Fold each of these.
Amino acid sequence: MSRITISKMAAVAFLVLVANFSFAQIDAKATYETKALYKNLKSISKKYLLFGHQHALEYGHGWSGDANRSDVKSVCGSHPAVVGIDFSGFSGRPSAEIEKTKAVLQKNVIATYERGGVTTVSWHFSNPASKGGFYWVDTLSVPAISMIKPGGSQHQAYIEILKTIADFAHSVKAKDGKLAPMIFRPYHEFDGEWFWWGKPHCSREDFIAVWQFTVTYLRDTLGVHNFIYAFSPDNKFTSEADFLERYPGDDYVDLLGMDNYGDFGRDGNYNLEMGVRKLKIISDYAIKKKKLAAFTETGLESIPNPNWWTQTLLKTLQSQKLQLAYVLVWRNDSQSPTHFYAPFPGQISAPDFIKFYNDPHTLFENDLKAIYKRKFLGLF
């Protein structure tokens, strides 16, 4: 299903080919494909925006495990340009279950790369020092950030968990012999209280120490060179200083993001002006530092607003000259009738989503060609 005009193709090709490719990627030894992805996302973000969906290929509304299927593709004819997966199953479970999860995700990541799409990884990390899972539970959870930092009582256990992640990163080798790049987004929404790594449960200094160790150990000790590292608080900041309060430094972050459901219709509350202001803080800082920016999580559960895609999301993203590489909406549960964030055939917002898909500003997987090549020729 083609929707790209010749003029748009030419514009993107010109935009990328003449772009100044100076950038601030933190891994000098990153693979060719990872560096190319970083540069191309930076160039694309000056005029376009990739659309992403969490767990898009693993399951959807009323289905699970079907080959080459996504709810997004069922509506518009293309998979999302960005597919979200999660490393939640890589620790705190029996080894056989961990291996099964790794195999499913490995197939997913490789297939996305071979189709020309992009993978982003969140990490709902079960507390390594107590029960309670990844959420903070008052009677169960312990403040584990101080325990997994260098010198902490659980530091060695954390190292073993990072080895599992590194093993996976080394395993996603495609038919062309190349490792699939991934945008890795650990410790997201850290300014909230709901996760055990949240702001009320650890000091600024300990959070930064764990972040810096995570990046350097994966990159420099374990030799992971196909990660782009993303930093994404929730939406509690209102200034650049607030946004950077737990920032680990330019040498440890490739992509600046934000998770924001609250300003975009959650519980019927809309504050799009505030949402734009927060996105502009991220975009402006990324431009200043020659890094990537993205709207790393958002969405409206059940999408009861039939025009949410064009009148809320797209209108916001097209304002204020934002330079965002992608926007990702959350998952579609396979069993819940109400927990979904992307439309499926017959859902009330599907017609508006097709308008969103057809808008020249948005890019889906079918639009991407050679995004892992330095001489990116634009769109199909």
Amino acid sequence: MSMLRTIKPKNARVKRALDKREAQIVENEKTAIFVRGQTSSDIVRNAMKDLYALKRPEAINFSRKNDIHPFEDASSLEFFASKNDASLMVTGLHSKKRPHDLVFTRMFDGRVLDMIELGVEELRSMSDFPTPKAALSARPMMVFHSDLFDTHPTYQQLKSHLLDFYNGHHLTEIPLLNTLEHVISITAGPISDATPLPLVHFRVYTVKLLASGSRVPRLQLTEMGPSIDFSVRRVQTADEDMMKAALKRPKLAKSDVEKGLGKKRKNIETDEMGDKVGRIHLAKQDLAKMQGRKMKGLKVKKSGKEAAEGAGADESAITED
């Protein structure tokens, strides 16, 4: 059983830094590092390139090769994660025993939380699909098609990894359609004697809204890539104490708990896709009182009646004097 580190702050600055690392009601975007080992293949490089494109801008790509072996020695992973303030890593490797290998790693408190190793069996990269692509930093909708993702421990861990990787949230209903740009579909086949761990099919589609003759538009899905078939290989599960600490949630006020909300900021809310939306309230602007450039051509000439009234007012003022 591993013991979690406890750091006692020496001053107020250190205490503020540690408070920022504590569990938050709304967590920030998780950064992912993409790093290659000493030996890799074209398939591994292309797969990492497309996964990196889907994760941007919360992603860092290492261009150099590194002598790194995640399951044998995790010190390099922990060093890279600490130096770049990242909690997710994808390591690309290739060997005769494990060809076209990708290792997904999650970090917590500067140490490895868990890992899962996937083999790239089939790949069609994003460049192979001459179709429109989703915008940068657009949040996808993720759909998991199989009971294994809710019942099998290995596939449950894989689902958790992918949701963390693309900052997914469990939704009970479909969000607003105009907020969707692309969908990530993950499918696993049934378990059989021939396939105790069936392949995982990773597909990405763009969303286009079409007229349907009603208020609800018709959705058209167009594959944009990448299209990857993964085989599940090695798995390293999380330590029980570390996972418990990683899942810790901050305490909420009783009123917020009853409303089902966290601590809210005025005019700032979170939509169905988990994006922050702000609202600005401005008073109605009176354009008649707006000061513009003083030009002769823009002066408003008085009508004959207004001019006569003005002249009469001036004469009455002189008479009174």
Amino acid sequence: MIELKSADEIGRMAVTGRFVGELLAELGAAAAVGVNLMDLEHQARRRIAERGAQSCYWDYAPSFGRGPFRNMLCLSVNDAVLHGLPHDYVLRDGDLLSIDMAVGIDGWVADSALSVVVGAPDPADLRLIEATEVALEAAITAAQPGGRLGDVSHAIGEVAHSYGYRVNGEFGGHGIGRTMHESPHVANSGRAGRGVKLVPGLTIAIEPWFCRSTDRVKYDADGWTIRSADGSRTAHSEHTVAITDSGPQVLTRRPEVRQGRHTS
């Protein structure tokens, strides 16, 4: 069942969204050659505790995971794209890092992700990240009241194809609000004019992610980390968005990430 949010409730989600956006920008700036992934995880734990927020990831235990997720970030490196477990890994020159986080404040959740390259970037990696960012902005633009959810999915797929990337249909965006995952599912490819009607009060997380040369994925033995099936690089961008009478409202906009890439 889809729960529509009032203007006041969207405002409360926006409070969470601002914190998520600011912390993501901070973590993206901190990601550098020589930094351990666990340093980023502990930085997030400290900042979330200081804010009095709650991580939506801690103790998260869906059917596909192996045991509860006892971390506050998903940190996915290079060919890993989703649900990467923070672990003892020191970032190397040219690594492509995706950072994903979802947090609740006073009962209202926001979810966002970004990808950055540490050190000297490969232009192909920057292009891949750019594709996810352009797809995200296109999807947000398509999220107009009176439209259909398929408009959002179609916008993502069109950008992916224009860059020459294929789209995996197993994982996409989702409804969000009181919990991290609510209805509806937001696919990363679809037909315009189809699906759930976009009405004011609908809140969704839109998250295009692409692999450089495949649309197939594989899982690590940990049951969490999802990688490209062929070992190619991956990237992921995400924002929490509210449909309002005046159009889409992005709740997780963030400051510029000065470390490597300008992000939305």
